[in-house]
Write a structure and sequence with these properties.
Blueprint: H1 2-22, E1 55-57, E2 60-62, H2 64-77
Length: 90
């Protein structure tokens, strides 16, 4: 009986000693970072679409050319250079 206890203790000891040898360790160093960031920006460009079409107002036909000239005058009065204005025909 005593030999059985010694044998079982030796087997248990051998199993316990072998357990760490079975684990696979990754020895590659690494840095783990978790975080967030916020940044406020000031927009430096704005795209605005303006549609102009002929219309009749008080029995008078207002042409596209007349509206375009009024638009250019209004844009110049705001201090916006006309080079920033582009025309898209549809």
């Amino acid at each position: 009986m005593k030999a059985y206890k010694i044998l079982s203790v030796l087997v248990l000891l051998a199993v316990v000693i072998k357990l760490p040898a079975q684990t696979i360790e990754n020895n590659t160093p690494y840095i783990e970072v978790i975080g967030t960031a916020k940044k406020e920006i000031i927009p430096n460009e704005i795209y605005i679409t303006i549609n102009i079409q002929e219309r009749i107002e008080r029995k008078e036909k207002i042409s596209i050319e007349k509206q375009e000239l009024a638009l250019k005058k209004a844009i110049e009065s705001l201090g916006i250079p006309l080079e920033n204005l582009s025309l898209i025909l549809r």
